[in-house]
Amino acid sequence: METLRIPLISVVLILCFPMISSYDGSLILVYYKELCPLVEELVKRNVEIAVLRDPRMAASLLRLHFHDCFVMGCDGSVLLDSFGVMVSEKEAVPNFNSLRGFELIDQIKFDLEEACPRTVSCADILAIVARDAVALRGGPRWKVWLGRRDSLNSSFDGANQFLPAPNSSLEMLIANFKRQGLDIDDLVALSGSHTMGKARCLSFKQRIHDDSIEESIESLKRDKIFEKILRSICPESGHDDALAPLDYMTSARFDNYYYQNILQGKGLLQTDNVLITQDLDGEIRRKAWSYASDQQLFFSSFVKSMVKMGSINVLTGNQGEIRRHCRFVNSNFDGF
């Protein structure tokens, strides 16, 4: 089957990792080399088609991986539908009517089950999809560590508790990332994923209409024209599902404009702006300046943090299972 080729320029960044296992010994680069050699080709083909039809889908797929890893680990739990007494993470406040891309994951899983039955985990699909989504929008491409297995349950409470809220303070963000084994460098690098995609009015309405929640210095810096545009998109009442670009310069491309935006006080979400306004010792500001002036440095740091995030609490060996359908654990799916 010939891979669909789309004329998008992507920056290829291959990091020189050891070829045997990840730093914690749980994942390997060549996991499917013999088990399912076409896995990355099949995934990429589906992602290419989806992103060509809807460029915003790239950001949505990257977000799926993030929201999966930050709850119970990178285990595909975010993909499970509610069943019996188990409430899906999709129903949690940060995800409800917000996460996208589930149908694409279903299609990829169907294709992989046809090619390599009960072999490729949904958790690994999310990791590969996130990489391909970034690369297809002009960002770096990296080798994905593989061998994750799928969880047998989801955590509705965990999704409400551990996913950062869009109005979080910098202190809350640092604590949230630390809980996942990620540091400030990871926070700054991974925040750069907001260089593409859009956010719902509900997630930034409070910030643009309530000056009391902003730092006083930030209120002086904010671009009034930029604020007026946001308020026209998102009035004080209603329009909760209206969309605004996370990066107002190049929302359909993965680049370093995000950092230029936040340094000018033009981040969309409060979590974007507090990286600068609440950075009392200037550590994050210096890092943001570095990324704003050197895109390749940002790409390199982003890849390093993505690989690190992708290893959070992974299930391997005999843990969990390889789901036949990403929305259901096998014991439930087999009953249909």
Description:
The two termini are 31 Å apart. It is built from 15 helices and 4 strands. It has helices spanning 39-53, 57-69, 102-115, 122-136, 156-162, 170-179, 184-191, 201-209, 216-221, 224-233, 257-263, 270-277, 283-293, 295-309, 330-333; strands spanning 11-12, 140-141, 198-200, 243-245. The protein is mainly alpha-helical and 336 residues long.
Q: Which strands sit side by side, in order, in the main sheet?
A: 1-2
Provide the β-strand percentage band: under 5%
Number of helices: 15
Give the overall form: globular
Helix content: 40-55%
The major sheet is characterized as: 2 strands, parallel
Query: What is the alpha-carbon Rg in Å?
Result: 20 Å
User: Tally of extended strands?
Assistant: 4
The secondary structure category is mainly alpha
Low-confidence stretches: 1-23, 214-220
In quaternary terms, these chains amount to single chain
Indicate the mean pLDDT.
90
Element-level helix/strand string:
EHHHHEHHHEHHHEHHHHH
Distance from N terminus to C terminus (CA atoms, Å) equals 31 Å
In short:
This protein is an all-alpha fold and 336 residues long. The protein has helices spanning 39-53, 57-69, 102-115, 122-136, 156-162, 170-179, 184-191, 201-209, 216-221, 224-233, 257-263, 270-277, 283-293, 295-309, 330-333; strands at residues 11-12, 140-141, 198-200, 243-245.
